[in-house]
Amino acid sequence: MLKGVGKGVKLLLGSPSTMFVPWEDKFYIVDPGSSEDRTEEIKAQAKDKIKGIMITHFHSDHVLAAKGLESEEGVYAHIIEACGIESVGLRRAVTFGGYAPEGLIYHVKGVSIQVDHVFRLPFKLGPLEAVSLPGHTYGQVGYATESGILYAADSFFGDRLLKSVVILYHQDYKAALETLRWLKDHVRDYYKLIPSHGPIVEGRRAEELLDLNINAMEDLPGKLLGILADGPFTAEEISARIIKDGGGNITVSSVILGAVTVRSLLARLYEESRVVAEAGDRGVLWKVNS
Questions:
Q1: Beta partners for residue 277, in sequence order
Q2: Of the candidates 218, 141, 135, 207, the residue with the CA atom closest to the CA atom of residue 171
Q3: Dihedral sign, Cα of residue 259, residue 137, residue 86, residue 9
Q4: What is the pLDDT of residues 226-261, one digit of tens each?
Q5: Strand runs (DSSP E) across 13-87, as ranges?
Q6: CATH of 220-288, one of 3.20.20.450, 3.30.43.10, 3.40.50.1370, 1.10.10.10
Q7: Residue 36: predicted pLDDT
Q8: Is 116 helix (H, G, I), strand (E, B) or coil?
Q9: What's the pTM value of the predicted model, to 2 decimals?
Q10: What is the 3-state secondary structure (H, E, C) of 45-59?
Q11: Spatial CB neighbours of 281, under 8 Å, sequence gap ≥ 6
Q12: Is-contact 95 236, C-beta < 8 A?
């Protein structure tokens, strides 16, 4: 069932949610989602009236349901994200560091999706304008409607997800934090904000949710450096400690995903000469630069 969010724009709820934007008696579909069942849901709701499919970033849970969807114009993606959408191997390697077996990191089936239209920013198409929201991935974009509704992809997350994952997954810690602060500064420019994995928010509620995300990111350096006071540790050991201390579930997947954000933060701290790296029997070890 589609939920109206204003000005003719509708949302198929889920994790991620999928946005339907009307144009010329058809719909642009933003981030189809993560299951074959979702494909059938979208078909049923759109009634074969799909103008085009807009992808925010290359993660499988956002693109899988595009397989099997027929549209007038095809699939659109930012140039940095397009290769990952078309290559399952590249998609996994960005997180794992090389070839990764099915099911080790993600529990969503990896499917290659053909990108028909690759764009650079600035980019506007019909009722939609791409908005640069890097950090979660390097080329992630959101899509803003003419009425001021911003589908914000995975630039920020809902309360429940914040509590459950402990470490927010971002490939570039600094860029992700800058994106969050930009959203906080511009939140009143938009009628509503829609995170892929979270509630539809506006006004004060949007500011509060963005603050929760910003605080979670700003707290991470202190947690990391506190752990390194007892160090040195590898990035994955740091990831596991932070997840455990935050009451999260330590799994192979959660530690690997958390370590992506941790490594990104360590790289930034290294550039600031706050941490140093050394090689040891356990691998690359990080410690506070004293």
A1: 286
A2: 135
A3: positive
A4: 999 998 999 999 999 999 999 999 999 999 999 999
A5: 18-23, 26-30, 50-54, 75-78
A6: 1.10.10.10
A7: 79
A8: coil
A9: 0.96
A10: HHCCCEEEEECCCCC
A11: none
A12: no
- Given a contact cutoff of 8 angstroms between Cβ atoms, the answer to whether 20 and 9 are in contact is yes
Token duo for residue 117: 């239209």
What is the distance between the alpha carbons of residues 129 and 147, in angstroms, rounded to a whole number? 11
Q: Are 30 and 54 in contact (CB under 8 A)?
A: yes
How do residues 45-86 score in pLDDT, each as one tens digit? 999 899 999 999 999 999 999 999 999 999 999 999 999 999
pLDDT-above-70 percentage for the chain: 100
CATH of 2-154, one of 3.30.70.3400, 3.30.70.360, 3.60.15.10, 3.40.190.10: 3.60.15.10
CB 142 within 8 A of CB 150: yes
| Token reading at 51 | 């103008």
